[in-house]
Amino acid sequence: MLDRLTAIPPDPILGIITAHAADPNPNKIDLGIGVYRDEKGNTPILESVRQAEQILDTTQTTKSYLGPRGVVGFNNAMNELIFGKQSDTVSGNRVRTVQTPGGTGALRVAAELIKKAQPEARVWASDPTWANHGPIFSAAELPMEPYPYFDRENSALLFDDMMAALQQRGPGDVVVFHACCHNPCGVSPDLEQWEAISDLAAENGFMPMIDLAYLGFERGVEEDAQAVRMFARKCPELLVASSCSKNFALYRERVGAVSAVCTDSEKAADVETVIHHLTRRNYSMPPAHGTGIVDIILHSEELTSLWLTEVTAMRNRINGLRKTLVERIEAAGIERDFSFLKRQTGMFSFLGLSVEQVRRLREEYSIYTVDSSRINIASFNGGNIDYFVEGLKGVI
Ligand code: LMR
């Protein structure tokens, strides 16, 4: 039976890891996958995570199953982190958050939830969106369609076109948004624009599905939750897929959560049972380690404040790199305007290169970007930024 299968080409993002690892060039740079790196090129374990892990190690007494809800303290803490401790959404018990294996796990559970609730639902996502969104929704038999978002010519938001397209959406439509640090283009609506988008969702009745993978990487942990909270205040229903991969640097521990905001507390309780049903038939029971760590951090004032300092440091480093990169590009005499890199946020931006230029960067300089020319800004450091600029100059 397995003989009928043929090879599938590597994933556009994950394939870069393998190609970069096999490259013998000592100057090689991996600007592919979205992981934070420090000045030495490492992805360190956060100090808050180390301390919480030690506490977990000394207090954990069993490895028995957790049950479908997982680490309940984690679920509750994520509820408050995302929706706000004082919010009506949390105090009115309209939201249920359940841990999932990473943000991808959350998206998949959310997609299955949508399919179960309304099999003919249509899912709309920004053009462009994270390369894995389409495959995740299509795995749940929900085809994904694009709405205008990124102005490739000006490296900016196509706000009016987006609003005009979303004006056509209504009940039965699910619209995927990136709450902050848009992946891949680094361009987000401002607060005023989020107000207009969330008003439109409430008026027209389409359901927002928010991908919250970079909480804290745009303006701050509280600030980056604002868009989600606006939708939760205005719309009767909302789904959120959140991730602790980046902001807690817990990538390989696979820590994420799916949150369902419903019309009232009873409906939210019903929907939680459906989430448990969906996860039971998929991975049965959730893992404990990563969510245990986040639970400890978010329930300790001291560790929370240490964690917030660490998130701020990661955000500041990325923003600093964005400025340095633009300065070095200008200093190298490259005439094309790359100043948009400074205005964008989060790990990612498009360089705006052709596939041919991306291929040359890879083959002639061992500089690896996604084919779309998306780069991970967090991969730059004092030791590689000038070599990158040299490569960029060489291909444009
Ligand atoms: C990325 O876009 O690089 C990250 O979200 C990691 C991934 O799994 O693709």
End-to-end gap: 49 Å
Task: Write the element-wise H/E pattern from the N-terminal end onward.
Answer: HEHHHEHEHEEEHEHEHHEEHHHHEHEEH
Instruction: Give the proportion of residues in helices.
Output: 40-55%
Listed once per kind, the bound small molecules are: (2S)-2-hydroxybutanedioic acid
Question: Care to give the gist of this entry?
Answer:
The chain is α/β, with parallel strands linked by helices and 396 residues long. The protein has 16 helices and 13 strands. The strands form four sheets. A seven-stranded mixed β-sheet has the order 2-10-9-8-7-3-4, with helices on both faces.
Describe the structure in your own words.
- The mean pLDDT is about 95.
- The radius of gyration is 21 Å and the shape is globular.
- The chain is an alpha/beta fold.
- It starts with 13 loop residues before the first helix and ends with a helix.
- Helix 3 packs across helix 12, helix 7 packs parallel to helix 8 and helix 15 (about 355-365) packs across helix 16.
- It has helices at about 15-20, 45-60, 70-85, 90, 100-115, 135-140, 160-165, 190-205, 220-225, 225-235, 265-280, 290-300, 300-330, 340-345, 355-365, 385-395, and strands spanning about 30, 95-100, 120-125, 145-150, 150, 155, 175-180, 205-210, 240-245, 255-260, 350, 365-370, 375.
- It contains 16 helices and 13 strands.
- It has a 7-stranded mixed β-sheet, sandwiched between helices.
- The structure holds (2S)-2-hydroxybutanedioic acid (LMR).
